[in-house]
Amino acid sequence: MSNRQSIYEIKDLSLNNEDLILNETVFHNANGYIGVRSNFEEGYPEGFDSIRGSYINGFYDIAQMKQAEKLYGFVEEKQTMLNVVDSQSIYLFLDDEPFNMFEGTVMESSRWLNMSEGYTARRVVWRSPKGKEVEIIIKRMTSFYQLSLFTIEYSVKALNFEGNITFKSNHIGEVMNYCNPEDPRVAGESFRHLFPHSAKIIEDASFIVTHTSKSGLAVCTGVKNCLSKTGVMDVCIEEHKAICTIESNIVCNETITLTKYTVFSDSIREQDCEQKAMEEMDCALSLSLEEHYKKQREYLTDYWNQTSLEIEGDDELSLAVRYNLYQLIQSVGKDEHSNIAAKGLSGEGYEGHFFWDTEMYIQPFFTLTNPKIAKNLIEYRYSILEEARENARIMGHKKGALYPWRTINGKECSGYFPAGTAQYHINGDIAYSIVQYYLATKDMDFIAGKAGEIIFETARLWIDVGNYVNDEFHINGVTGPDEYTCMVNNNYYTNSSAKNHLNWAAKFYHLLDEFNLLKPVADKIDLSQSEIEEFKMAAEKMFLPYDEKLKINPQDDSFLQKKMWDIKNTPKEKFPLLLNYHPLHLYRYQVCKQADTVLAHFIFEDDEKIETIRNSFLYYEKVTTHDSSLSTCIYSIVASKLGMEEKAYDYFGDSAKLDLFNTHHNTKDGIHTANMGGNYMAVVYGFAGLRLKESGLFLSPSLPKKWSGYQFKVTFEQSQIKIEVTEDMCIVTLVSGDEKVIHVYGREYHLKDTISIERI
């Protein structure tokens, strides 16, 4: 991996408030368990806006969700991800002068992310109001080796003076979440969710336990400060806040370093989170900081070797893609208690909730590069299967399971049901992700143990929610992926998803029977052959809307009856539409927030003729605003399939650069993790034409004109395969594992070592 692909740097830091809060997201540190926004250790001036947060994946409290109409089944409370501690605060004093980038003179400044070594850093050369000059370098890391650990290495070099130096390092357990009543994507009200329970000092390390207000959960954070030279240290507790003050002296050209260790532990995963935090602190201190850095490098070396997506000929785009893949490993939960929030662990947008984003946009990346993580994500869904069954009962279904639209602990958090709970396609999305995992791994034991139960229980919902009309199976009163068109009959995507789901439920039933693995799961959920026949019949007779005149698949029964929205003449300041128009107003128009039918044409491409897919793509392109970050990557993939190379490239660029270049102007609230997975798919499923099917692995590579080549690796049935695409050739190499049968441009090949195929 070249240096330009592994380091993102900003020089001459802007101190504009908008830039600062954006960079809190862009340079955040996370490892899938914890996430810490990149706030200045010394803070900002009074009146500056900031989202100062540290988060634990899957840790939450309960907040009220007030409903104007108290009707049966309406959600009246929700889970919300919590800011659990402020252990970032470090104040530096040179004699009596505090370091502050907003006072004195900033002579040089920069900030960077090293994606091969796994840390962020800030460098400042600063002159105090009284003329003292220092170089400050601050490195921050969330460890992939020890998931509980966050470190700050704060180095100060005296450039033109000698004197006293003082560090004041705070550990604050009483913190609040960010709120913005003007933006529905973040919390609208400020609540106090965490209450101090205990605070103690053990061998100069502080441990603070806080309890949530309603969810009955607890978190313990521990902090230890270590100085590189002898000094006077005082650690005290003041109202459940630990303050560590360290004084020493410094001479000209000397560097002094404060290392601050923070560990996290929570009661979801541990019976005694305080005791666990103490053990984690001992573990952290048992290695030097250099050893922690070494293990971080080793983890990421292995990660990049597995993922290995490189683009040649466009350094800026290549860097953006690399950044996105780095954020995916930072965001993804590494155990069954967590998943991937819409903003990862970078901010409080969407309150840390897990959506369908995981299954449809992010899990495909891990399915192809790290199946173990993909399996963990499915196991999280299994861990909340009982809550999905309960949700189905609330929605009036006597059998089966319906997964919530947005959740942390398994209970529905969607307060506006037309654009939330009504999106029944969530069941089909989870089923699709399981099918893809199976096609990539052939892990039949997992299907028998957990995944099959999810498939069968969620498939039952389609039989209950749908009904036969003129010998066709219809699904009414649901919402598809497009949230500008809600509560419709026969949404094409939903019906296609249900058809795929029901067919695979029948296939898995027979596969399990063939491997003598069926009985345990069938007995557990009382699944019979007659029910499977019912699944097959519904799939066979599934109604998929088609318009003979336009030769397209209408998004739903009523979509084509509506007026078209005039996107071209809508003022720019009116986008995104959801913030400027009443939902009912939007629902009466042909206008799409994101890919809907077009998404179905990507993942269920064999259901329709290529001509129908082309006509549909061109039709929906005219009425789609792409107000959702989930949209342009899908349009890129389908444009690639249709041979529309320029469109595919343009849509891909919009997708890839979204967060690193803040193209939607809302990255301050957190990264867009689903889009990041989507732009990986735009390369691998789009330009490379990769598909996982029952008959094997398929490729149909194309090359954007602005690139000289690209390459990536995938794991397929325990074998690692490298695909290189050049101007003339497609080169496929078996890196490790058993030989495989693959398909390139529709022809079958036996992959034993390396195959070179002329690019079509």
TrEMBL record:
Residues annotated for substrate binding in this entry: 356-357, 593-594
Annotated InterPro entries: 6-hairpin_glycosidase_sf, 6hp_glycosidase-like_sf, Gal_mutarotase_sf_dom, GH65_N, Glyco_hydro_65_C, Glyco_hydro_65_M, Glyco_hydro_65_N, Malt_Pase/Glycosyl_Hdrlase
Domain Glycoside hydrolase family 65 N-terminal: residue ranges: 15-263
Database matches in SUPFAM superfamilies: Galactose mutarotase-like (SSF74650), Six-hairpin glycosidases (SSF48208)
Active site positions: 483 (proton donor)
Pfam families: Glyco_hydro_65C, Glyco_hydro_65m, Glyco_hydro_65N
Protein name in the entry: Alpha,alpha-trehalose phosphorylase
Start and end residues of each Glycoside hydrolase family 65 central catalytic domain: 322-680
GO BP term, example: carbohydrate metabolic process
Protein's organism: Mobilisporobacter senegalensis
GO molecular function: carbohydrate binding; glycosyltransferase activity; hydrolase activity, hydrolyzing O-glycosyl compounds
Domain Glycoside hydrolase family 65 C-terminal, first and last residues per copy: 690-751
Family: Belongs to the glycosyl hydrolase 65 family.
Entry keywords, A to Z: Glycosyltransferase, Transferase
UniProt key word Transferase: yes
